[in-house]
Design a protein that fits this description.
248 residues, disordered N terminus, two-stranded antiparallel ribbon, alpha+beta, eight-stranded antiparallel sheet, 8 helices
Length: 248
Amino acid sequence: MIGRILLIAVFLSGSFLALAQNDPYDRTLAGYSSYLSTDYGITIEFSDAFTDLNQYFVIMPIKEYDAGFVGPQSGFIYGPMFQSEDKECVIMYPALMMYVSKEDIELGRKMAKLNRQWKGDTSPMPSPHPSPNDPLPRNHVISEIKAALGMHDGDSARFDFNEHVTIIAGKQPRDMFNADSVYIYDLKIERPYHGKYTHRTGVVISKKDRATMVLKLFFTPKGKKNEEEYVRALSKRIWYEEGFSHEE
């Protein structure tokens, strides 16, 4: 739980932190699958058309910042990772899920209160968001895009979310993942990943009151032309189980 609240807190504040906590599951596909199903009610199935790269808990910042840069820094921790049979695509699954529980909220409130007391801040505590998980997917997407573009905090007025993000809602995400929404967006990449993957796409899958999945897909120029095919390959292989509750 501590690792999760730290992960959520640093990403929402625009910071990036490497968590050196004990692994929450065995570094195997079976361990990862069990973790998703037991802790988050998400069933996962991996395609035989992709090769397991046997990588877990890999820190992937969105951008390498120059000294003195002040702006939204973002990233995530990934693994397992897979390479497509044609080697034109790499898919990275999130090593940790994005979810804030009631316990996390209470711990965060206590930490914020102590921080305010240390600073001598006597103003009233701001009211918590009534549904703290609702804004997480959108906020994370914004953080990643702005980081990739090198936008400073003061540049928010000229940031157009709809210009950068395709949101799929309604029947299609329900059919694909039993989810409410899917966010798909390009992320500028400074140097080719492993020397050949020149394009990067973020895919964020969300469902109300459930954990959010943050995936990354890297493509060669040829693979980028078949991006929709690779995204469709995830369909029904990630599935939000009905009747699951994080608070039980």
